[in-house]
Backbone:
């Protein structure tokens, strides 16, 4: 009678090292293995699995290596039940030795890197969303955190959400703008202002998708915070993470020949705004200042450096407008720009030095631009 060889137990020191290097997570899908995902009760639901099987007849087994590597750390993976079944039974063919070694290595290197991040990299994470047209906005915490790392990481794994929960109001109604502006100010005062006053960590990572007038308003609220990283949602690739290159090098600034009329600042960045659309709202008795790019489009703002250039051109433009038009007239804003640019415009605007703002928003259901918010400078209050 043939007697099956009894598999040897993994030594406690090797098992402990595997748990530590994997950070108690499945090395394949990253699921937490030390608590139940539904009840959150402590439990051990991990499998210590072999890359090269302990038996030559097992998955990826080898007459030469199976016995030799049976208890070696380099040959072991910490897996959940589903992934253990996936690599050994359900999809064994595609999970070769080289594939599994890379999965193990990538996971353990990522854990080592993330746990080496120092305390001075902490950042308070702020999220703000509001309905754009009839479309509610959903942003996951993971997409936010992935964009922050490795430069920053959230203070306590928590997102400060300034959004009006489950709002069904749409931006084609006057009540939408009143309610959203009131909510934004209220929640900022309640959740962010105390942190600014008392918390030892004074760095902020800001993620926002909302109609542009509200993003500008949000920017004015965080204008006094010096250490803020404003992020941009990209379409290609689908991420919040800043890219290394952009096809756009700089912005194009133009000023009106006649600077004696009503001052208007037009941002033709994500789309081109025809002057006739402005005239239909403000009238033709206006002086239109413009910030644009060569080919306006929705996904041009790829890099932090380009956003910094935007801040500089905005500051230059606001100074020029004030010099030309004086301090006692409001500046009419017609924005077509990326979300991060809208926030940064609000941050650059200075309530003590710049003109009051009257902000418009393109609304298809109301056949063009509509006046939404007014942001007054200190002289006008």
Residues:
């Amino acid at each position: 009678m043939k007697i099956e060889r009894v598999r040897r137990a993994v030594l406690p020191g090797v098992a402990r090292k595997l748990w530590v290097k994997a950070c108690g997570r499945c090395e394949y899908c990253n699921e937490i293995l030390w608590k139940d995902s539904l009840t959150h009760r402590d439990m051990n639901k991990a499998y210590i699995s072999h890359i090269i099987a302990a038996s030559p007849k097992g998955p990826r087994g080898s007459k030469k290596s199976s016995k030799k590597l049976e208890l070696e750390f380099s040959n072991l993976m910490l897996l959940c039940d589903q992934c253990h079944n996936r690599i050994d039974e359900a999809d064994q063919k595609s999970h070769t030795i080289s594939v599994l070694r890379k999965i193990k290595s990538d996971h353990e290197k990522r854990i080592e890197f993330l746990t080496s991040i120092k305390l001075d990299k902490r950042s308070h994470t702020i999220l703000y969303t509001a309905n754009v047209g009839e479309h509610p906005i959903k942003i996951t915490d993971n997409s936010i955190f992935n964009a922050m790392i490795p430069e920053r990481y959230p203070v306590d794994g928590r997102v400060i959400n300034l959004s009006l929960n489950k709002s069904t109001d749409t931006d084609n109604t006057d009540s939408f703008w009143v309610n959203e502006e009131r909510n934004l100010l209220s929640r900022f005062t309640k959740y962010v202002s105390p942190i600014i006053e008392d918390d030892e960590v004074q760095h902020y990572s800001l993620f926002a998708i909302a109609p542009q007038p509200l993003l500008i308003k949000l920017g004015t609220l965080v204008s006094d915070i010096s250490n803020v990283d404003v992020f941009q949602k990209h379409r290609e690739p689908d991420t919040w993470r800043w890219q290394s290159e952009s096809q756009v090098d700089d912005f194009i600034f133009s000023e009106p020949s006649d600077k004696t009329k009503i001052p208007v600042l037009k941002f033709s960045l994500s789309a081109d705004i025809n002057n006739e659309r402005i005239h239909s709202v403000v009238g033709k008795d206006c002086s239109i200042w413009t910030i644009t790019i060569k080919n306006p489009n929705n996904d041009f703002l790829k890099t932090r450096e380009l956003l910094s250039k935007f801040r500089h051109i905005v500051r230059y433009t606001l100074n020029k407008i004030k010099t030309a038009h004086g301090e006692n007239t409001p500046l009419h804003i017609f924005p077509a720009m990326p979300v991060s640019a809208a926030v940064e415009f609000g941050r650059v605007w200075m309530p003590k030095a710049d003109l009051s703002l009257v902000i418009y928003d393109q609304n298809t259901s109301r056949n063009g631009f509509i006046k939404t918010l007014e942001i007054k400078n200190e002289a006008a209050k």
In short: The first strand starts at residue 47 and ends at 50. The two ends are 96 Å apart (CA to CA).
